[in-house]
C-alpha cells in the first residue's frame, strides 16, 4: 500500500519530528509512506470571509495538484465521520482488498480545507470535535495508521 500524507505547512518542532520519524520507521514494515509538505498561504491575522476562502482555495489548489485520479482521498476535517481505531483498520483493509493501493490523507492549514478538496475527498474523517494543530495531527495520524496495520495483522498494540 502506498500512503501519502499531504499537509499544509512546515513542521518546525523537533519533538514532533522525532515522533513522526519513529512512526515512519515502524510503518516501513507495512506500507510505503510519503509526507508531502506544501507551503501555507501567508495571510494577515484578521481576514474577511472572502480572504479566508481565497487562502483556502490557494492551499487547496496546491493539495489537488499532488493527487492522481486513482488516489483514494481521506480528508481530515472536524465535520468528518469519527471512527474507532478498529474501524479505521477495517477501512484500510477493505481498500487494500479492493485494489485501492494509493491512499492520501489530507491535513489542511489553520483555516481548514477548501471546498474543492472536500469535494475531491472520497471520505472525510474526524479524529475529534476538538481542533488540533496540523503539525500535531501528523503525529496522531501516523500513530493511528500504524495501529491500524497492527490490528489488521493481529499483532499486539497498546490499548
TrEMBL record:
Compartment(s) where it occurs, according to its Swiss-Prot or TrEMBL record: Cytoplasm
What Enzyme Commission number does this protein have?
Answer: 2.1.1.177
Q: Which residues bind S-adenosyl-L-methionine?
A: 76, 108, 127-132
A cellular component term (GO) from this record?
cytoplasm
Superkingdom of the organism of origin: Bacteria
Q: Which UniProt keywords apply?
A: Cytoplasm, Methyltransferase, rRNA processing, S-adenosyl-L-methionine, Transferase
Q: Which residues are listed as membrane-spanning?
A: none
Give the catalytic activity.
Answer: pseudouridine(1915) in 23S rRNA + S-adenosyl-L-methionine = N(3)-methylpseudouridine(1915) in 23S rRNA + S-adenosyl-L-homocysteine + H(+)
Main location per UniProt? Answer: cytoplasm
Q: Which GO terms describe its molecular function?
A: rRNA (pseudouridine-N3-)-methyltransferase activity
Q: Which Pfam families does the UniProt record give?
A: SPOUT_MTase
Is Lyase among the key words of this record? no
Similarity comment: family membership:
Belongs to the RNA methyltransferase RlmH family.
Known function? Specifically methylates the pseudouridine at position 1915 (m3Psi1915) in 23S rRNA.
Instruction: Share what the entry says about its subunit structure, partners included.
Output: Homodimer.
Protein name (database record): Ribosomal RNA large subunit methyltransferase H
Amino acid at each position: 500500500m502506498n500512503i501519502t500524507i499531504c499537509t499544509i505547512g512546515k513542521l518546525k518542532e523537533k519533538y514532533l519530528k522525532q515522533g513522526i520519524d519513529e512512526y515512519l520507521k515502524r510503518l516501513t514494515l507495512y506500507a510505503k509512506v510519503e509526507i508531502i509538505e506544501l507551503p501555507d498561504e501567508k495571510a494577515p491575522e484578521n481576514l474577511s470571509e472572502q480572504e479566508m476562502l481565497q487562502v483556502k482555495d490557494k492551499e487547496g489548489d496546491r493539495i489537488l495538484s499532488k493527487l492522481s485520479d486513482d488516489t483514494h482521498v481521506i480528508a481530515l476535517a472536524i465535520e468528518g465521520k469519527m471512527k474507532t481505531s478498529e474501524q479505521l483498520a477495517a477501512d484500510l483493509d477493505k481498500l487494500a482488498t479492493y485494489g485501492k493501493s494509493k491512499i492520501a490523507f489530507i491535513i489542511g492549514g489553520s483555516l481548514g480545507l477548501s471546498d474543492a478538496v472536500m469535494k475531491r475527498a472520497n471520505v472525510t474523517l474526524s479524529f475529534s470535535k476538538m481542533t488540533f494543530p496540523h503539525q500535531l495531527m501528523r503525529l496522531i495520524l501516523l500513530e493511528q495508521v500504524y495501529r491500524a496495520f497492527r490490528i489488521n495483522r493481529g499483532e499486539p498494540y497498546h490499548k
